[in-house]
Design a protein that fits this description.
Layout: H1 3-15, E1 30-34, H2 41-57, E2 61-65, H3 72-79, E3 87-92, H4 94-100, E4 113-128, H5 137-146, E5 152-155, H6 161-173, E6 178-181, H7 185-193, E7 199-203, H8 204-212, E8 217-221, E9 247-255, H9 260-274, H10 277-285, E10 289-290, H11 295-316
Amino acid sequence: MNLWLSSLLVALTVVLPEPARAADYPSQTVRIVVPFAPGGGTDTAARAIAEQLAASLGKPVVVENRPGGNSVIASRIVATAPADGHTLLLTTDIHAINAAYASQLPYDSLKDFSFVAQLTTSPLMLVAHPSAGLHSVQELVRRARAEPGKLTFASLGPSSPHYLGFEWFKRLAGVDIVDVPYKGGGQALADTLGGQIHLSLIVAGNGIRQAKAGKLTAVAVTSPQRTPVAPEVPTIAESGYPEFAIVNWYAILAPAGTAPEIIGRLNREIGRALREPAVTERLTAAGLDPAAGSPAELEALVRRDIDKYRRIIALTGAKPE
């Protein structure tokens, strides 16, 4: 080997970074970036998981809320972070919706991330103010067809599964129900509870609590099967629209290229955390169902949802915000 080639190899070993190894992980604080403001379900889930991970990983795990841009700001932070397992993203099905709109994202929703673990599922519940007198999907459809444009629905914007799911239902049922846009779920729920709005889609766990308190009527749930939190409430699918299914989810992603050994360890530790009674109680109190799974299962879920929301967007003509 000549002197020039030897010098080049020595230089490369100096400047090229060594991939992060599972044996060295974690070597510093782990941060979980959340695309939404503190106080919501994603924040609750992130903090519940962070506490357990800090104990099992032996390093601090902090939650960093970076709201804005329909989760794009937080997602870009993680997509461009070092692929060493120290920066994670807690995202939701909005990750798939953003990809389905095929807008100019500053990252590739599949190629720029490693899939770590699903955290939760949470079917939505279609609820009505009691004054509307609606107790089933069939009653809703009959009323909407008899009085087109009279019923109102609290819409959370075109990037939300609430909006896309209800627009899909309207096309399937052939009904005219007016979308009333809201910037946040809190005000939408408040106006539904107050009777200013007839209908809304909210997390099933929260919906059944409001229904049992007599404040709302539980009409149907959006999951393929009835949910354990409200087994007495039928699905939209069994109410005459078998193709309909919308389920929210939360999941942990990491930057693409993160070592499989690190992904595997994180997946195992998150799975253990989700089995802890303290974590389960915090999640269920927020209307969330713990749902562990493998990285491959999570990636398959994201791909299926991207395809599903692309079909819904094409059917409804929905436009991104």
